Amino acid sequence: MAKKDISHQKKFETRIDFTPMVDMNMLLITFFMLCTTMLKSQTMKIALPSNSNESQIEKNKNQAAESQAFTIILDGKEETKDGNVSSTSANSKFYYYEGKLDPAQAATQLIEAKGIGIKGTKDTNFLTAVLQKKNEKALKKIGEFKKEWEAHKYSNDDAQNDAIYQQKATAVLAELNASHETPIVMIKPTSRANYADVIALLDQMQINSIGTFQLETLSKDDTTALQAKGVKLPPPPAAK
Questions:
Q1: End-to-end CA distance of the chain
Q2: Cys-Cys link to 93, which of 50, 73, 75, 198 (CB 3.0-4.6 A)?
């Protein structure tokens, strides 16, 4: 009797080749990188002095610094909760003075503000109202430019419209700064200051179109003025 041929089915292993998918992903990434508009930097453009008139700038530096100087001292009160020491915005204290601080008149020259305040407030007990008053000319001129910018009067192209607006605003700040009509703001946080309040003050510089500002440490005269106000600062941390 002849044997029947028994057919055996061959088994094949399933394998997916991902090589084409990798190529496709690279093409998609390249496409999106070329076609996507990157986020624009939201930093403020500050007009810097040129090197062409250094001697005149140096000659008027002290006079300008004294007449334009506006110093803000940010203090806080530390509290302990669950073993952690922190400073909250509710404990924040704001002080300011104009021009050069005279230690003999520190108690009257150093003024305590209620707080930072909101844009448009007229209450001069808040810092934002004082800054608006100090930078009134710049705010008025830049406000006119802003209306034209919002109406796209400079250009229908958004990028060009923004560029022209920034150029005009920078030119105004440079012109007023050269004539000593804009404030130079110095922000001096103490060791107890809240970080969120420092950021809020920096935001106020942009909101109120302050062209020149900087963060600094307290001077001896600042410490003396705070002591005259009854503010006891903690001793500086010991050097390691």
A1: 101
A2: 75
